Automatic annotation (TrEMBL):
It is found in: Cell membrane. It comes from the Bacteria. Residues 1-11 have a biased composition (Polar residues). Keywords: Cell membrane, Membrane, Transmembrane, Transmembrane helix, Transport. It is a multi-pass membrane protein. The chain crosses the membrane at residues 34-64, 104-129, 141-161, 193-216, 245-262, 301-321. It comes from Streptomyces fimbriatus. This is Carbohydrate ABC transporter permease. InterPro entries: ABC_transporter_permease, MetI-like, MetI-like_sf.
Amino acid sequence: MTTTAALSTGERTARKNDPGAAPRRRRPGRLRRIGLPYLLLFPALLLELLVHLVPMVIGIVVSFKELTQFYIRDWGTAPWAGLDNYSLAVDFDAPIGEALLKSFLITCLFTVLSVGLCWLLGAAAAIFMQETFRGRGILRTLFLVPYALPVYAAVITWAFMFQRDNGLVNHVLHDQLGLTDSPPFWLIGDNSFIALLVVSVWKGWPFAFLIIMAGLQNIPKDIYEAAALDGAGVWQQIRRITLPSLRPVNQVLVLVLFLWTFNDFNTPFVLFGKAAPEAADLISIHIYQSSFQTWNFGTGSAMSVLLLLFLLVVTGAYLLLTSRGRKATDA
């Protein structure tokens, strides 16, 4: 047996040193292991191609066409418009461009307030939940209920609560507390922005709470104990330990909340219907109205492409700044 093993080893060594020897074939099992991840990813890549990439390419093509209701049946025959749709969208002196700019500014203000409040409420609740007390598990579950509810069911419920005559909000504010002289309108007029912001924060802050609470689990408790022994108070611990430790988590969280909120279409559409009030005219619902209400899909597609470019620029700049800040902190 020893002689056979020695001969086999010698044959392998000679074959390896012989340049004319035939190359050794890989084992089928190894090839199977290498190709398995790509095989598992193939359905997801196929769905990504069909659901996102193909419609996006078609939308870009449509943005260069004069596609109106007269060419819906065969949109390929629509006349080529070139950059006319883009020029019309960015002409802020014209009614279409002026309305788009106003909607863009409203969306920016709404996004800043919504993301800021979602992060603030989520961080406060997550830090509070780090302490052990009776009923903590029940509170954690209750905090996640808005995030677990379907969007349409939650927003429709809020729409009923914001009704002027028989809604719960006016019943509490006007009938019970007497804070208003008369029941205000929440789904029309200037108050529609406040109603939209309340619904957005209500359904968005549990996600921030969940992510920050998970990030807090990675901070050793020994650091807090050492800081307490050195005389650091609660606010000093949050400022010096919690927030710096959560910086990578917060960077990703803020970016995700920004993209979700800026592109939010379901909330204003379900809350206000097809025609959102002027004070709550988010750019997503504005593009929908420009496309499906006026049947001018070329201009609506151009607005969508401009929105995509804006989000790509903001996301790239944000990632660049955060990566530089991370490198500076590590150095």
